[in-house]
Amino acid sequence: MIKFMTKRKVPLWLAITILLIVFILGFSFLAGIINNTLQEFTNAIPQYKIQLSSRIQVILELAHRWHIPLTLSQEEIMSKFDPSSIMNLVSKLLMGLSGALSNIFVIFLVVIFMLLEMPVAKYKLALALSPDDDLSNEKEYINQVLEGVIGYLGVKTFVSLLTGGLV
């Protein structure tokens, strides 16, 4: 995306800023979806408990009708399905998600610094690897290597986003 914008005469700093804004908006959108889903789930827990209670009652009636001996009452069965255990599971999931988001943030910072270093990296590498003043061949070779790395990072980012979206 950076290369696409810089080819169209967008300054590098503006292209990186636009990319950052797109990433931040994307993460904000995902955080909003997750927050909304968790709110709906939390609000629906009492309804799930009522539905579970009615289904347990039906099962107990069927067991009584078919003379299946059950020693558990409906209250004992319902006590096994405590909403606090569900909320405990949700909190563990959120802790895992927060760990993943912190790792994504670190990767995001690394990518920002790589993008800022991109225009001068080929010249620095050419100077470091060249023993003489003739840098034309080295510049071209380093340019190809850097374009390959940038292409690889682009494909890797796309595949990671696609995988994350599907999971």
From TrEMBL:
<keyword id="KW-0472">Membrane</keyword>
<keyword id="KW-1133">Transmembrane helix</keyword>
<feature type="transmembrane region" description="Helical">
    <location>
        <begin position="12"/>
        <end position="34"/>
    </location>
</feature>
<comment type="similarity">
    <text>Belongs to the autoinducer-2 exporter (AI-2E) (TC 2.A.86) family.</text>
</comment>
<feature type="transmembrane region" description="Helical">
    <location>
        <begin position="93"/>
        <end position="116"/>
    </location>
</feature>
<dbReference type="InterPro" id="IPR002549">
    <property type="entry name" value="AI-2E-like"/>
</dbReference>
<keyword id="KW-0812">Transmembrane</keyword>
<dbReference type="Pfam" id="PF01594">
    <property type="entry name" value="AI-2E_transport"/>
</dbReference>
<protein>
    <submittedName>
        <fullName>Pheromone autoinducer 2 transporter</fullName>
    </submittedName>
</protein>
<dbReference type="GO" id="GO:0016020">
    <property type="term" value="C:membrane"/>
</dbReference>
